Amino acid sequence: MDRLRVMGNVYKQYWRIxxxxxxxxxxxFLIWFAFTFIYHGSxxxxxxxVLNRFPSMNGWTFRDMAFLYGMWMLAHALHxxxxxxxxxxxxxxxxxxxxxxxxxxxxxLFQAIATPGQVFxxxxxxxxxxxxxxxxxxxxxxxxxxxxxxxxxxxxGALIDLAFNLFISTVAFWFVxxxxxxxxxxxxxxxxxxxxxxxxxxxxxxxxxxxVPFAFMNYFPARFFLHKAHEGAMLPAPVGLLTPAIxxxxxxxxxxxxxIGLNRYSGVGN
Amino acid sequence: xxxxxxxxxxxxxxxxxAKKAMAREAxxxxxxxxxxxxxxxxxxxxxMVWVALYARNTAPKELPxxxxxxxxxxxxxxxxxxxxxxTRLLHDKLHSGGIATDFMKPIVVPFYLFADGxxxxxxxxxxxxxxxxxxxxxxxxxxxxxxxxxxFFASFALGYLxxxxxxxxxNCVAFWTLEIHAMQLIVTWITDLFGGEIxxxxxxxxxxxxxxxxxxxxxxxxxxLLIYVGAIPPERYAWALGVQAFWVVVLALASTVIWRAGAxxxxxxxx
Lengths: 270, 271
Fold this sequence. Notes:
The structure holds two protein chains of two kinds.
Chain A: H1 2-24, H2 26-53, H3 62-83, H4 89-95, H5 98-102, H6 108-113, H7 122-138, H8 144-171, H9 179-192, H10 202-211, H11 219-225, H12 243-267
Helix pairs in contact in A: 2-3, 3-7, 3-8, 8-12
Chain B: H1 12-26, H2 29-56, H3 65-82, H4 88-96, H5 99-104, H6 109-135, H7 146-172, H8 181-194, H9 206-214, H10 222-228, H11 237-269
Helix pairs in contact in B: 1-6, 2-3, 2-6, 3-6, 7-10, 7-11
C-alpha cells in the first residue's frame, strides 16, 4: 500500500512538472498546439474534399467517416497524453539515462512513463470536442450502450496504441535505432485507420484485425454504432464492443515482451 | 578593414560537398529500406482508396480511375525527391552556431547548403527506380507520349525549384527563431493538401480549387502531375510552365532578401 502511495505522489509531481514546463515555454506550446490542430484539421479537410466529390466510400458517407476519425483521434490522443513518454525509452537507452531508472526502488516502466517532459492534455481536449461534434454530426443514437461502452472502447483503443509503443521501445534493447520501425507502424496506423477497412484486400483486413489490431480502435466500434453490420461481413457486429478486451490482451503481451527485454538488458552487465 | 578580393568562383568544392552528402545518406541503409517500404505501402493504400471511391460514384471525366491511380503513384515517387528538407543543414548550423565559421570560409554559403542538399536529393532520386519497379507489382501506370513526358520532366524540375525555395525560406526563419520544427511540419501538411500531392486539385470543390491554384504549392506537385496524366493539354503547356517559372523567380527573390537579412543578423551579433 505504501508503495502505491509513493507512486501516486510521484505521478502527481510528474503532472505538476509537465504543466509548469508548458507554462514556462508558452510560445513553444502554442506553436505545437497549432501543429496538432492543423494536423487533424488537414486530415479531416482531406476527407471532406474527397467525399464532397465522391459521396460514398464503400457505403460510408463523410458523416460516417468523421465519426470513424473522431473515434480514432480520441483513443490516440488519450494514449499520447498519458503514455507518449514510453516512446522516449529508446532515447534514454541510447544516452545511458535508462540505467538510472534501473537502480531506483520503483517499477522501471512506471518511472519511464512518469519521466516529465512537456506533456499537456491539449490534444485530448481537442479530440474530445472533435468526437462529440462528430457524434452529433453523424446522428449516432447516444443510448445507455453508447455511454457505457464508448469510454471503455476509447481506453481499449489507447491500450492498443500503448501496446505497440511499448513493443517498439522494447525492441530498442536489442537494436539501438528503432526510429524507422516506429515510423512505419505510426504510418500504418494513421493512414490505414482513416478509412473503413472493408476497402482493403482480404490479407490487409486480416492483418489489421488479428496481427496489428488497429481496426479495433475505430473501425469495428464505428461499424457497430453506425449499424453497418452487413459490411465487411468477416466478423459479427458486436465484435465492435470487444476493444477493451483486445486492448488489455495487447498490453499484456507487450508487457511480457518488455519483461524479457528488460531482463536481458540488465543481465548483460550494463 | 580592407575588403578581401572575392575569390574566383570554382564549382569543384561544391561537387565535393554534394558527393560527401551522398555518401552520408548511403550509410543509413535501414532508412533507405523504410523509405521505399513506406512508398509501397502508400501506393497500395491510395489504390484501394481510389478503387473504392470510383466503384460507387460517377468518375470525373478528366480523371478516369487508371489516370488517378497513375497520378497518385507518380506523386509518391516524386515525393521521394520533393519531400526532402534540402536545406535542413542551415537550420542545424544555426542551432550549433557552426554557421559563423562557414561565413569565414572562402565559399558562397547558400551554394554550399544547396550542394549538400543536392547530394541528398540525387541519392533519393536513385531510389525512384527500385520503388517504381516494386510499385508496378501493385499498380499499372500509364506512360504518356514523348512530348508529354519531356514536358513533365521540365515541369517537375521547376516544381522542385519551387519546393527548394519554399524550404530555404522556412529554414531561414531559424535566423530569427530557432524552434522551427513545428512550423515546418505545419507547412508540410498545408503543402501536402494544397500542392495536390495526395488529392488532385481538379477534384477540389470550386472555391477551394481557386485558392489552391493561386498558391505557389500548386506549382510543386499539381502542375507536373496534371501534365503527366493529360489533364493539362499540350496547348496549355507553355502557360503552365510559365506560371511555375513565375513562382520560381518570385521565391528566389524572396529567398535572397531573407537570406541577406538573416546573414546580416549573424554578422552583427557575432561582432
